Amino acid sequence: MTIPNFTRLTGLLLVAGFFYSCGTSQVNIDELLANNNYQQAMEEIDSRLSEDPNQPQLYIQRAQISAALAKDTEPELRTEFYTNISNDFESAIEYGANQEQGATIDSLRQQYWKDEHNAGLQDFDNSSISNRYTQAEIHFQNALILRSDAISSYRNLSVTQFNLGNIDDAINSLETALSYAENPSAELYENLGYLYLEIGNPSEAAHYYELANTDVSEDLNLAFGLVNAYISNGDSESAVDILEPLVEENPNNADLRNVYGTQLYEVNSEILEDLEAAYDNNNSILAEQIMLEAEGMGESAEEQLIEAFKRDTSNIEYLESLAVFYNNLSAQYLSLQNVAFDEDKEVIRNKAFTLIDFAIDYYERLINIDPNNEEYTNRLDVLNQLKKRQTSSSN
Question: Quick count: other Cβ atoms within 10 Å of Cβ 128?
């Protein structure tokens, strides 16, 4: 009566023994990897996964093989390997990688990404490499295959693309980084603002500079970028709003004063256009108000331009700013005289020729510095002819 039980036990033992010996006959993948037998290891992994895909560890090992193969391949040919690594890591997670395997995946992904990212930084900084920016770009692009959310890689890729002259690509890289950033940095917005200025899109540039949401008085680069965006977009009033407190906090910054003065002039030009409209509409009360506003704004612009020049009298740009300011403002007053009320014509005319005198003085200074500059000499000739005409009419 005991035989059937024994027979059944024997059968179970035989079955267990069969499976055990079958397991020991399998190729040891770890040994293959240790001996760099990547091809055989890959074939073994593929075979096992085809039978049972629910084996996270095999995906991790296959990713390690791809990483080893990528290391022995030129950077520009690593795309397929890194794509395979990324796919295998995702498959391992999908098939239920445990906590330890998950930590291994995170560690390996970070390691592979870091190797490519740092290689990009090294090539970028290596001036002895003739094509360093191209090589750096390849490394950063490789790094992003491994970690598509690596904001630092996008930023460095963008800088590299900018140096290669591929500004549209640089913008795309930063905008992709922005899509991954939970709390985008002011610098990221600032860089996008700068790039949009570079391609001649001041509206979008201003948009990103404004998103930086930073106190411009504490970040002059951001302030200058935002001012440039407003100026390029023809928004002088917004530029003035930024420049006014900056000049107050940096009174000895001649560049700030010069830009501030030119923008005040632009605002004043718009005021004078409003004055012309008031004359056309025969609105004497409004014309009087606008005239006072124009006088004050013009004097403020003049003051800032003079202060800039005082701080650096050798700077021809500041000298030219004053010459252009007086020249253009005098032309506006001469034009205004044609539509002004009779009682205002003499005042406006006198104002115009006072400005002409100043313009002549500054253009003469410019010609002393650069006597062969045709633009200066032509402008001075016109001003002198206007002055001569005024003198003749007065006599």
Answer: 5
Quick check: 155 and 174 in contact, CB under 8 A?
Answer: yes
pLDDT of 293-303, one tens digit each? 999 999 999 99
Give me the amino acid identity at 312. D
Between CA 281 and CA 287 the distance in angstroms is 9
Q: Which two tokens stand for residue 332?
A: 């506006």
Q: Which two tokens stand for residue 251?
A: 């009174």
Give the C-alpha separation, 104 to 61, whole Å: 11
Q: For 135-177, give the DSSP string.
A: HHHHHHHHHHHH-TT-HHHHHHHHHHHHHTT-HHHHHHHHHHH
Q: Give the span between the Cα atoms of 114 and 110, in whole angstroms.
A: 6
CB 268 within 8 A of CB 297: yes
The answer for residues whose C-beta is within 8 angstroms of residue 341's C-beta and 6 or more apart is 279, 284, 287
The reported pTM is: 0.79
Instruction: Spell out the long-range contacts of 221-228 with Cβ–Cβ below 8 A and sequence spacing 24 or more.
Output: 221/190, 222/186, 222/190, 225/190, 225/193, 225/194, 225/197, 226/193, 227/259, 227/263, 228/197, 228/202
Q: In degrees to the nearest 10, what's the CA dihedral of 38, 44, 49, 54? A: -80
CA distance readout (Å), 337 to 66, 225, 344, 351, 353: 80, 38, 8, 10, 12
Fill in the DSSP letter of residue 200: T
3-class DSSP assignment, residue 1: coil
> What DSSP state is assigned to residue 76?
G
Which stretches in the chain have pLDDT values below 50? Answer: 1-25, 395
CB 294 within 8 A of CB 314: no
Report whether 159 contacts 170 (CB < 8 A). Answer: yes
Three-state secondary-structure class, residue 45:
helix
Report whether 261 contacts 284 (CB < 8 A).
no
Q: Convert the pLDDT of each residue in 217-242 to its tens digit.
A: 778 888 899 999 999 999 999 999 99
- Provide the 8-state DSSP code for 26: S
